[in-house]
Design a protein that fits this description.
By secondary structure, this protein is of the alpha/beta class. The protein is 46% helix and 11% strand. It has a single domain, classed as Aldolase class I (TIM Barrel), CATH 3.20.20.70. The protein starts with 12 loop residues before the first helix and ends in a 12-residue tail after the last helix.
Length: 298
């Protein structure tokens, strides 16, 4: 059961935007920048969620996950590959000699417009294929109608099915209208058992934004203070440059602290971010930028 949703903090949009601007003003250079870029690379869920996905594309993405750039030494692999349930077994096999996890979207992604029975079967299929993490979407229509118990019960049901697999709950913040709604949805998801809360499916705009992510980090901080449980955070969609990724990491460190600066508690849902980070790392090592033509188009 959920309670006390009326006692949550409220957010002034202008105030949050001003707070975010201060995170973006931090200067990170030289060795600190390189270490930040490597950390960001290690936190990426390298993602392909298109209707035109093929086995060949998934295999290529898995290869890239294991070999981000063969000429760069001492760089990490990404945290996970995120694919549709039909490609989980293929991804697991392709990654079997690595510690890279396989995540899969479920619960009628991206709309969430299906009944609970179908959503549970969708989740079970991915689990049967060997998935490590489930990224589920909440029912935004029910949430916006004020049916918060429905949203809570649905998340709790999927969490129960997940067993040992981590559950990332996608709020689709671009459809929630206000920062206060983002905070409320974050609270419901965490109370219902989410291991991570995630901004977006990446299928609508706006996707991840720093103000929205700040509110979600603030919710995680308060939840940790109340319960002692560390919840992970995953901004997804629209984070495509190293500069932006580093700004997110500055915000993560200043809001939640060093304990969260690890792939176990923070992920970037991205496809093109890895290439930009690799270009910056090549520049740091060689002094020149490598052409984007030298990187796979994912």
């Amino acid at each position: 059961m959920i309670s006390n949703l009326n006692n949550l903090p409220t957010y002034d949009t202008v105030g949050v935007q001003e707070r975010v601007k201060r995170f973006c003003s931090r200067s990170i250079k030289k060795s600190a920048k390189v270490e930040g870029l490597k950390l960001a690379l290690s936190m990426i869920d390298l993602t392909t969620l298109e209707g035109k996905d093929t086995p060949g594309k998934v295999k290529q993405l898995c290869y890239k996950a294991k070999h981000p750039h063969d000429l760069l030494k001492n760089i990490p692999t990404v945290a996970a590959i995120c694919v549709y349930p039909t490609y989980v077994a293929l991804a697991k096999n392709s990654l079997k000699d690595s510690d890279i996890l396989v995540a899969s979207v479920a619960t009628a992604f991206p709309s969430g417009q299906s009944n609970l029975k179908v959503k549970i079967e969708d989740t079970k299929f991915a689990l049967d294929q060997g998935v490590n993490e489930i990224d589920m979407v909440i029912s935004r229509g029910e949430f916006l109608s004020g049916n918060y118990q429905f949203v809570f019960d649905e998340i709790a049901s999927i969490k129960e099915v997940c067993g040992k697999a981590h559950l990332k709950v996608i709020l689709e913040t671009g459809e929630l209208d206000t920062l206060d709604n983002v905070r409320k949805a974050s609270e419901i998801a965490m109370l219902a058992g989410a291991d991570f809360i995630k901004t977006s499916t990446g299928k609508i705009q706006p996707a991840a934004t720093m103000p929205v992510t700040y509110v979600m980090l603030d919710a995680i901080k308060d939840f940790y203070t109340k319960t002692g449980k560390m919840i992970g955070m995953k901004p997804a969609g629209g984070i495509s440059t190293s500069k932006i990724a580093l700004q997110y990491l500055v915000m993560l460190n200043e809001v939640l602290g060093e304990k969260w600066m690890h792939k176990n508690y923070f992920r970037f849902g991205a496809s093109s971010l890895a290439n930009d980070i690799l270009m910056q790392l090549v520049k740091a090592e060689t002094g020149v930028y490598q052409s984007s033509n030298y990187f796979s188009k994912d």
